[in-house]
Specification:
Largest sheet: 6 strands, mixed
Number of strands: 20
Strand order of the largest sheet: 6-7-8-3-9-10
Helix content: 10-25%
Radius of gyration: 25 Å
Structural class: alpha+beta
Length: 394
């Protein structure tokens, strides 16, 4: 880190939400959300539109007040503090830069509002621009920059006054895929350098996997599961989390206990899975086995199957070229469609229209209750589609 950049030494604050609820006249946008974000952690709030993630971010920022529950930042109760007294930086999807100001003047704006002396302002602005790799761009105006550069200016403006917490509301949503991927790495680097606690909102699962120390998966106003990317991907606790985070292949059936494991009756066949679903009531319960596409193997029908592996008959309905490999869509006899992903150096010989056998190792499956909804049950308060829309579509 350069001498200039080292001027920025923000330290993250601990954020704690306890039983936070946000009600509107005819709806509940956030219901019983409890979450601890550790100092300096990169936490992503991930979920579909209307899931409560943006409302939760706005409660942390102070833009929205909670109906009930508590919020502390750095051990200080926040309920009665306005946004400008919370030591929080904010980056929005739309850059909100002042077009008549230079880049340096935009970045310096929050310092000027805080009456930071001019000499110190100049030092901090230079350090912030170096941090986002825009050193030497201070004299330009926003209209002379690309979209990615403008978003970096917005990031510099948010970190320049050394906030303990930085909130980011889908800041990369307006950028193209290649630029978005580049800025994801930049944001991750900036987080490491400045040490603030980052809270990032997105509906993009891949973005969440790339950026986060931990991810809180939202749905229907509540948190479904909190964990690292690998924990959520490999060990989802609900069918919603399994199917929302990354691609998955889901086989549904009825539970048949089998010692410490379970068997799932799928048509006239059974597949084995480790353990029992947490919400299972026993034999005959609807359940699902979720397998990630990279763990499925596809072989010609009739080829021998390794002892102990699960196997189901299917037909290849589509081949999708991915450059690094290919994805196969596979239709089971009952119409269920599975996805298998193969690497370019390990492609099977099967082709579109072939009758095949889909094979996977028992331990690669995750057994879950077959409920498309959630493990979170919001209390009744007139939740309606119209009420959910009050979250501005996020």
């Amino acid at each position: 880190m350069s001498a200039e950049t080292s001027l920025i030494k923000a330290r993250g604050a601990r954020i704690e939400l306890a039983q936070v609820r946000k009600e509107y006249a005819d709806s509940v946008a956030v219901d019983d959300v409890s979450l601890v974000i550790e100092p300096g952690e990169f936490m992503t709030l991930l979920g579909p539109s209307g899931s409560g993630k943006t409302t939760t971010l706005n409660i942390i920022a102070g833009f929205t007040s909670a109906t009930s529950g508590t919020l502390t930042i750095g051990g200080v109760q926040m309920q009665d503090l306005p946004p400008h007294r919370r030591d929080i930086g904010m980056v929005f999807q739309h850059y909100a830069l002042f077009p008549h100001m230079t880049v340096a003047q935009n970045v310096a704006f929050p310092l000027k509002q805080r009456k930071v002396p001019k000499a110190r302002r100049t030092q901090l602005v230079e350090a912030a621009l170096e941090t986002v790799r825009l050193g030497g761009y201070g004299h330009r105006r926003p209209s002379e920059l690309s979209g990615g550069q403008q978003q970096r200016v917005a990031l510099a403006r948010a970190v320049v006054y050394e906030p303990s917490v930085l909130l980011m509301d889908e800041p990369l949503g307006a950028l193209d895929k290649k630029l978005r991927e580049s800025l994801q790495l930049e944001i991750k680097r900036v987080h490491r350098e400045i040490g603030s606690t980052f809270v990032f909102v997105t509906h993009d699962q891949e973005e969440a996997l790339v950026l986060s120390d931990r991810i809180a998966v939202f749905d229907d106003g509540g948190i479904q599961q909190v964990g690292t990317a690998s924990e959520l991907y490999e060990k989802p606790r609900s069918l919603f989390v399994a199917e929302f985070l990354g691609e998955s292949s889901t086989v549904r059936g009825k539970i048949e206990p089998d010692g410490d494991d379970s068997c799932l009756r799928v048509g006239d066949r059974t597949v084995r899975a480790p353990g029992r679903p947490a919400d299972s009531t026993g034999t005959g319960t609807d359940a699902a086995v979720v397998v990630r596409p990279e763990h499925l193997r596809v072989q010609p029908a009739g080829a021998p199957v390794a002892p102990g592996a699960n196997a189901l008959p299917a037909r290849v309905t589509q081949e999708i070229y991915l450059g690094s490999g290919r994805k196969l869509e596979l239709a089971l006899p009952d119409g269920t469609v599975l996805l298998a992903r193969e690497q370019a150096d390990r492609l099977s010989d099967v082709r579109h229209g072939d009758e095949v056998t889909v094979v996977w190792d028992v331990e690669r499956g995750v057994l879950l209750g077959d409920t498309p909804g959630t493990t979170h049950t919001p209390t009744p308060a007139g939740r309606t589609p119209a009420g959910v829309a009050q979250e501005s579509g996020r």
